[in-house]
Amino acid sequence: xxxxxxxxxxxxxxxxxxxxxxxxxxxxxxxxxxxxxxxxxxxxxxxxxxxxxxxxxxxxxxxxxxxxxxxxxxxxxxxxxxxxxxxxxxxxxxxxxxxxxxxxxxxxxxxxxxxxxxxxxxxxxxxxxxxxxxxxxxxxxxxxxxxxxxxxxxxxxxxxxxxxxxxxxxxxxxxxxxxxxxxxxxxxxxxxxxxxxxxxxxxxxxxxxxxxxxxxxxxxxxxxxxxxxxxxxxxxxxxxxxxxxxxxxxxxxxxxxxxxxxxxxxxxxxxxxxxxxxxxxxxxxxxxxxxxxxxxxxxxxxxxxxxxxxxxxxxxxxxxxxxxxxxxxxxxxxxxxxxxxxxxxxxxxxxxxxxxxxxxxxxxxxxxxxxxxxxxxxxxxxxxxxxxxxxxxxx
Length: 395
Ligand SMILES: Cc1cc2nc3c(=O)[nH]c(=O)nc-3n(C[C@H](O)[C@H](O)[C@H](O)COP(=O)(O)OP(=O)(O)OC[C@H]3O[C@@H](n4cnc5c(N)ncnc54)[C@H](O)[C@@H]3O)c2cc1C
Hints:
Blueprint: H1 8-18, H2 24-29, H3 46-50, H4 56-66, H5 69-91, H6 93-104, H7 110-116, H8 123-135, H9 140-153, H10 158-168, H11 174-185, H12 198-204, E1 245-249, E2 267-272, H13 286-307, E3 311-313, H14 319-326, E4 330-334, H15 340-354, E5 358-362, H16 365-370, H17 378-391
Parallel strand pairs: 1-2, 1-4, 2-3, 4-5
Bound molecules: flavin-adenine dinucleotide.
The site of flavin-adenine dinucleotide (FAD) has 27 residues, from helix 3, helix 5, helix 9 and helix 11.
């Protein structure tokens, strides 16, 4: 049975079931990857939070309702890693553009094909390929080992490995994925790479794997590339009250009922679309496509009942007719972080503007609070977690 059901209701139930284990148990056990049937040491919330079926603020609030901050600090920090990566990439969108350009210039060779087909000859690596293809998920430690073996033992381009993950992970996220691969390679923190070691794999897979003598445990980091200076998080114009307004859902945020909308916005229609195939020029897994499609349907249903307005999936070809049918003057959507969804929104914005319709993005308070603190290392942001939670009214 899949651990991952693409509805908010399922995400809330999953959070509820995990809460008792979010403090001491998580802190001591989270690094163990005991296999697909032994996942109670982690929350498995990432596909839901990545698509915002549930928010980081909700997760942290629920955890702090149950545990003291000091007991659940490790888990809360992990939740904040997502905010850190998203903020870091928002401050340096060029890193995403460079990664995309490098990918376009690469063609998978035989070595790469063998790796993604689970024919590397390294048992643990091949098992993780099978798990990823079957479940759309890997434990965090397995992701680290996998990326490290890909880069340093198999000597394959990190960009193709990141793309492979992005095409198959249900939680595939431009920031968390790309920057985690860069971190393993030693590009993110200059000169500091992550080396997978056989003994560490044996210890943290509960003895399931021990690739003794099979890994390159002495590799040096990849040569550094240019990291641009951090820019700024853009201020966003507010939606205008008084305009005939539609809400637009996309895969970066499928919970319109909790968007920070100003008073007086009259919602006349709700639409949305997902385009997971845009994650890559190579095929995206059927599981990712199914998951995001189901999650969109769930988001539209919830939005419809919250706002009392019909909600439907609108494909690109139907957008104009939908706008005309409802006399839409303004479309309000959730801010999308750097990546294919943001690119698609920018294209839509231009098309809509040509027809006199304005597209307005709203950003959640959590992102506005955390992202500006992602300019340096995670440890600077970590120090800010408690005060930022206070500012957000999370006791
Ligand atoms: C090479 C590599 C690629 C990765 N690609 C992705 C990706 O595409 N999408 C993605 O969501 N995460 C990615 N991660 C981060 C992390 O592995 C997953 O978020 C985590 O394993 C999800 O499982 P969980 O929900 O059970 O996590 P838990 O351990 O229960 O953590 C709770 C929540 O904290 C967040 N979180 C935890 N660890 C991280 C982390 N290192 N970075 C960012 N957020 C984190 C997630 O939202 C997660 O749901 C990647 C890590 C590596 C090393």
